[in-house]
Specification:
With 133 residues, the chain is of the alpha+beta class. It is 34% helix and 32% strand. It has four helices and six strands. The chain has a six-stranded mixed β-sheet with strand order 1-2-3-4-6-5, covered by helices on one side. A hairpin with a 4-residue loop joins strand 2 and strand 3. 17% of the residues are buried.
Length: 133
């Protein structure tokens, strides 16, 4: 993925394929993280994950990444979020989800607001948004 807006919206820098493979190998072995591939019309268009899963507190952070520019702006984010929220409640018995987003990613912020996430104050460079399930 060489689309610079993807990395700007993530607040990240492009990584080599080797670095991405190392990241995925590390990520899949961590007990408090779950990653799902997102497919649309038979094509892998991104990933969604739950991480920092706290079973006792019944909370987790989520991330969603749609890397295929052609599939942004079609309402897929809202559908993906709803599916992940159902999975969080049914499979993991979570009661609250949190996410961080860079303030310049206005499309994502709008999607999260439309999904019922509220802004919470933070001292970092990203916005914290939270939803009680």
């Amino acid at each position: 993925m060489q689309d610079s807006t993807i990395y700007e919206n993530l607040g990240a820098r492009p990584k080599s394929m080797e670095a991405q493979e190392i990241w995925f190998d590390k990520y899949k072995n961590e007990k408090d993280k779950i990653v799902y591939a997102v497919e649309f019309r038979g094509k892998h268009i991104g990933n969604v994950s739950l991480f920092n899963i706290k079973s006792i507190e019944k909370t987790a952070f989520l991330s969603i990444f749609i890397g295929d520019n052609q599939n942004r702006g079609k309402g897929l984010g809202k559908k993906i979020m709803a599916a992940l929220e159902r999975k969080a409640v049914v499979d993991y018995r979570l009661q609250q989800l949190k996410l961080e987003v860079v303030p310049t990613n206005l499309a994502a912020i709008k999607c999260y607001e439309n999904c019922g996430y509220s802004h919470f104050p933070t001292s970092g460079d990203k916005l914290l948004m939270v939803k009680d399930l």
